[in-house]
Amino acid sequence: MSNTQCPYLPAIELRVSKLYCLAEQHFLKRFPRPQITLNLRGETAGQAWTEKNLLRLNKQLFKENQAHFLEHTVGHEVAHLIAHQLFGRKIRPHGREWQFIMEDVFRLPAQRTHSYNTNNASKRPFLYRCSCEGKTIPLSTIRHNRAIKGTVYLCTQCREPLKFIEKVSA
Questions:
Q1: Domains of the chain by range and CATH?
Q2: What pTM does this model have?
Q3: What does the pLDDT look like over 48-96, one tens digit per residue?
Q4: Rounded CA separation 143/80 (Å)
Q5: What are the backbone dihedrals phi and psi of residue 8, each rounded to the nearest 5 degrees, phi first?
C-alpha cells in the first residue's frame, strides 16, 4: 500500500504539523516539513533521516499503538529533525539538544526506546542454535545474510558461535 492510499498518514501528518508549529513558536524560526514514509519494518518504530529531512515510520507498530505512537514516537523522530536543523550534524543523536526539544519544546519524556510488542512486526524467520541445550535463536534476514557472508554471531549465554538450523515459513 503506497503512502497516498494509507489511512494512517493524515493523522501522522497532522501530528507532525503540530510539533513543527510548537518548534517554530519556541525558536521563532520556520522549518521545512519532512517527507513521511510508512515503509519501516521490523522492531524499529521510527527513523529520522536528518540529511534527507525524512521520517520513516513503522506502519505495523503504528497500527497496534496509535495513540502512544502519535504522541511519543512521532515526537521523538521529529525532535531529531529539528535538532539537526538547529544545531547541525555534529550533535549526539540523543544528546542534550534533542533532549531539550523533547522535554522543553514538545513536553515529552526524552526516552530513547519504545516498549511496543513487536511480535507482529518482527520477522526473524531463520533459526540458529548454539551449545545451550534446547535453545534456538531466531535471526532476521539481514543477520542471516551476513552470517552466510562470514559474520559470526555468538550466543549471549554460552558465547559459542550460532549454527543455522532452518528457515521457518510464515
A1: 3-105 (3.30.2010), 126-167 (no CATH)
A2: 0.72
A3: 999 999 999 999 899 999 999 999 999 999 999 999 999 999 999 999 9
A4: 27
A5: -90, -20
Strands 126-129 and 54-58: unpaired
Q: Is 64 a catalytic residue?
A: no
In order of 92, 100, 142, the CA distances from 110 in angstroms are 14, 8, 29
3-state helix/strand/coil string of 46-57: EEEEHHHCEEEE
Residue-level pLDDT at 2 = 43
Indicate the pairing of strand 35-40 with strand 54-58: parallel
C-alpha distances in Å from residue 92, one per residue of 48, 87, 138, 145: 13, 10, 31, 30
Q: What's residue 122's pLDDT?
A: 63
Catalytic residue selected from 13, 24, 71, 77? 77
Cell reading at 122: 518482527
